[in-house]
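User: New here, any thoughts?
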Amino acid sequence: LLPDTDAEAAAHVGGLLRQAVEDLALPHVPGGVFPVVTISVGVSTWRPGDLGTALALVERADQGLYQAKRAGRNRVVAV
């Protein structure tokens, strides 16, 4: 959770996290798609006054995560 953060800034933070994990260069299981461990990140935003619940926010972020995985992994998707 990133209070007072818009979608662009949240996606940027997700990108920093993604890059930090990749930069660790932790070996991945042999034969995997990537030679090192990577992460995919789903980002969603909510503002006070918007309709919806905390659960809906998490579900949207989860949708972004699975979109990132379907698009090839090791990426950030904001929904």
